[in-house]
Amino acid sequence: MRRDRLLVAVTLVTLLVADIHFILIPRLKTWYHLPRESCMCSGANGSWASGVPVTDLWLLNQTSTLVSIEQDSKLERLFRHPLYNIRLPKVGPDELLLQHDELMNYYKRKVTRWERLRKVYIDAAAALNITIPDHPVTFDLEASWLRFHLGINRYELYSRDDSSIDKLLLDMQTATVISADYTQDEKALKGACDCFQVVKPSGLHLKLALKLQDFGKAMFKPMRQERHDETPENFFYFVDFQRHNAEIAAFHLDRVLDFRRVPPVSGRFINLTGEVLHITHNDDLRNVFFTSPANNTCFFAKCLYICKSEYAVCGHPDLLEGSMSAYLPGLSIAPRISIPNPWIRAYSFTGREEWEANPLYCDKIKKLYPYNSGNRLLNIIDMTIFDFLTGNMDRHHYEIFTKFGDEGFLLHLDNARGFGRYSHDEMSILAPLTQCCVIKRSTLLRLKLLERSEYRLSDVMRESLSRDPLTPILTEAHLEALDRRLGQILRAVGRCVKKLGEAQVVVTDFVESQRGTTSHPTENDR
Amino acid sequence: MRRDRLLVAVTLVTLLVADIHFILIPRLKTWYHLPRESCMCSGANGSWASGVPVTDLWLLNQTSTLVSIEQDSKLERLFRHPLYNIRLPKVGPDELLLQHDELMNYYKRKVTRWERLRKVYIDAAAALNITIPDHPVTFDLEASWLRFHLGINRYELYSRDDSSIDKLLLDMQTATVISADYTQDEKALKGACDCFQVVKPSGLHLKLALKLQDFGKAMFKPMRQERHDETPENFFYFVDFQRHNAEIAAFHLDRVLDFRRVPPVSGRFINLTGEVLHITHNDDLRNVFFTSPANNTCFFAKCLYICKSEYAVCGHPDLLEGSMSAYLPGLSIAPRISIPNPWIRAYSFTGREEWEANPLYCDKIKKLYPYNSGNRLLNIIDMTIFDFLTGNMDRHHYEIFTKFGDEGFLLHLDNARGFGRYSHDEMSILAPLTQCCVIKRSTLLRLKLLERSEYRLSDVMRESLSRDPLTPILTEAHLEALDRRLGQILRAVGRCVKKLGEAQVVVTDFVESQRGTTSHPTENDR
Prior knowledge:
Helix content of chain A: 25-40%
Mean pLDDT of chain A: 82
Oligomer: homodimer
Number of helices of chain A: 18
Low-confidence stretches of chain A: 30-70, 194-203, 304-310, 511-526
Radius of gyration of chain A: 25 Å
Structural class of chain A: alpha+beta
Largest interface: A-B, 32 and 32 residues
Shape of chain A: globular
């Protein structure tokens, strides 16, 4: 009997040890993505203690491209490459989107108004003898969102070595949510169902604007689809789900491509009860909450009240994962203009646009303002490449900051309809490139770099995405699709070069320096 | 070289033979569910040639319960059991739902009207110089649907040995479709969105009324969900999908339980273009058709035009599987009354009905007309057992033929929301049984029979469903759930008997004969 027990004990211990050794430790290693053995290694700027949290390490890493913490990190190697270290000319005050004092006044006005309203709510609650959650706001001149907004300039949304971006990602992951509401574009509908406007089906109004304790603001898009699920083949692009992981992955891809035209996005688990229902002051929003048969907290699209609870999203029981996208400065202080994409699709079941039938469509566009001069068309090609890599067919408009005029960079907003299918490359997205046969030299060089095994796009994306708290963000099949699509783009450029010659296809937008840190942008640069 | 080829040939032949022997033949055997070796065996009524098609064999089987074609068929054994051979008293003309002459006149009027309209369409098409599909109707006094309608009587929708039922199933699978339209209840909405009526969410208006060449009519419900997919745990019962396979399985289950209160249902592949789009005369229906990005023919709910093409169902590229439910006689010649289920659920997110909170609810119901006399309550219990087995929570109303008055049997219509979850038994569906603690003796005896391994419910259901052209209809997990739920029902009855004694719980509704073919129904029989 005792021997039996010993045998059982030995077996269990063996299993436990095997489990720890083969399952648990490798998994922990994958999570941390940090070779613990080499934690003490030091770079040019000094050594780092192994106890520093990973996020902070990476944050610090970003401040100096020379520091090599992770010897075998393809992403670090990529960001150290000369192509990723071309310096912009010094940005003058007029080239910044916002003036410091103007933004601070705006911020103060907002905080004052908030404090006044907060007092009203607290008094009203006290009169009714109920308690409401009360989160005092912090007025922080060093807030990461403020620094992000102040850094936006005519060349980029944020600079490569801007540490406030990593701080902003961290804040969006962890900061207390003090208020939740519908987004402005949904409020504009005033609760009306917008079923006849095809471009923005209203059945999907599940995104929320969340205000953080330091008055930063993020747009929350909840998870709607499992990461391994593909968009059904019969779905039109304009009714496809919005995917939170596509929003996150698009931010990382945009940075890996060195475009930096996507506002920072991070994953986060939101407590639907504590961080939305209990703190919103919007009755419409409160009224779309319900408890599901499985006792989970859910909310649904306000347009489709009652019948459409199958459209709802639900927490488990309260926690719901989603993407947090940093807000750009408000339109009142930084107006933007929204311009229809010349390669817009027909948002109907049967319609076809001219570009789909006319292979000489680009010749027509090239003659039209604003595509007939400057680099607007080259910027469209950059956007095309970005959208083809993600598989996003829903780029009906693009936006630019009014302040920067026709030469402003294109904002790559709303990327949640990318990464819907990994098994299919939608070649029609590449039409602007294949029809116009032009591309920026800087973009092409970076794409070629990302094709090389030392910097392979899927590898640097996997590494970059592993820093998000909701990792894994993309399945391996989606990462493989990125490499395959990169090959498609380079082959398309190759066909153009063969037909028209490199001089006509590849447009020089900068002069490469000898080794890394300086450059001389020509007028074609961004 | 020649030797190599020989080797390759021998290998291939060996593989082929092995494939045929181990894979193909066993699979064919499973499909046919017929031990070919014993095909020549004979029963009391003579021997059957092995060349007779399976459907016909089964059809013929039904005509004599003594014939034993399938020695090891549990289903045949079940149908031969004395409990399944209790004869009803001779049905008098007044006990039939329809009079022969009345139905024939109705039929003739319909055909005449059809022919007149057909002529108008053909003339109109000729004037416009277009051709339209023209399917002449056959006026057949022996049509299976006519015989089904003529057989409906105060005890049952069809008798056990009615060969017209198998003929009707076959006709619904194969007969030419001559017309397609919305169903009457959808037309009653006149295209208005019924989003505020919670009971019947209008987002699911995808069922169609199809008219067959012999003027039979079937309701087509298209496939919406894969057979292995479970209803999401956060879905309320009233927004759950309608499942074509649930509709088919419910018909078979109802017959296996010997209730015969579900109109015949068969699976069928419908060509959406040829059998719906091209032959409908309803413009509203034509207008909800579109071609998907994957070049499949699709149609969607008319209420949700444009935005909601994600609600569409699509063929591959034209063929779409679905259920075909035989229509009951029209309401003008055989009116029915629809009565709210006393155990109706609250069709809202938060509401609770009295029966959910009050364990003595049945005492109240028992005192109310029509549950205070006759066998209406026992019929409700039968329906409860049927719904619990399928997992259907959506039984808000039940229907009876007005002609048969309060003693008419309950029709078990609309079963498409059953079989949504195999991993969960919804005990609340059993509330009428657990609260009232009564059950018909005949029902209980059949349930006990189906619990025995010689007749196991899952086995007879698997066998019965294997005759449908869309087999497999239910996954093994759903079949296993049937056995598990049967156990739950019998345990619930056991608890009642323990508490109240058998005499009070088990209500005798027939006196069993010595051996099989006669019985003496008491006033409690159906």
